[in-house]
Design a protein that fits this description.
Blueprint lengths: L7 H8 L3 H22 L3 H18 L6 H23 L9 H7 L3 H14 L2 H12 L4 H8 L3 H20 L1
Helix pairs in contact: 1-2, 2-3, 2-4, 3-4, 6-9, 7-9, 8-9
InterPro entries: RNA_pol_sigma-70-like (IPR039425), RNA_pol_sigma-70_dom (IPR014284), RNA_pol_sigma70_r2 (IPR007627), RNA_pol_sigma70_r4_t2 (IPR013249), RNA_pol_sigma_r2 (IPR013325), RNA_pol_sigma_r3/r4-like (IPR013324), WH-like_DNA-bd_sf (IPR036388)
Protein name: RNA polymerase sigma factor (Sigma-70 family)
GO molecular function: DNA binding; sigma factor activity
């Protein structure tokens, strides 16, 4: 998404709940959302559904997005998750390049997958678990995590990388 197209003032007004700013934000973001959905989803129908769902989620949650810098990453992850959800729903294998074990995870029932992810978090050593929870559950930035830990940015990033690798290993065995 082009951050140039969305001004900081427009984003902040939408984040604070201005209905006109929210409408302009949705209108500005829609072409990029649609383009990304078409590249990510398995069918054009799924891409249209993912686009509409992403716009709806943006409308409902624009106030929770911390900054304009995080906006495009957040929005594209919403579209990607929606495309995966639609692929699982229709029984199609997602269009992402996954190993066999990781692809099998995507085909599991959501309730089972949630329990497995919770167990993977619990299996992490505490110093990795804390970082993973701060980033992936509390959605803290790397700088916020580093400050909370009293560590450097590089240390926080390294711990997060290791935590995710351990979780992936736990979930795919």
């Amino acid at each position: 998404m082009s951050a140039v197209a969305i001004s900081p003032n427009l984003f902040e007004a939408a984040r604070l709940g201005d209905p006109e700013a929210i409408a302009r934000l949705l209108e500005t973001a829609q072409p990029d959302i649609r383009r990304y959905a078409r590249a990510t989803c398995r069918s054009s129908a799924d891409a249209e559904d993912a686009t509409q769902e992403a716009l709806w989620i943006l409308f409902r949650h624009v106030g929770t997005i911390r900054s304009l810098l995080a906006f495009s990453g957040w929005l594209f992850s919403v579209v990607r998750r929606e495309c995966l959800r639609l692929a699982r729903k229709t029984g199609l294998v997602p269009a992402v390049d996954e190993s066999g074990a990781e692809a099998a995870l995507l085909l599991r029932p959501e309730a089972d997958l949630r329990l497995d992810v919770a167990a993977a978090f619990e299996a992490l050593p505490p110093h990795y678990r804390d970082v993973a929870l701060m980033r992936d559950v509390k959605e803290m930035t790397i700088d916020e995590i580093a400050a909370a830990l009293g560590a450097t940015r590089q240390t926080a990033k390294a711990r997060l990388h290791r935590a995710r690798a351990l979780m992936r290993e736990y979930l795919t065995r």
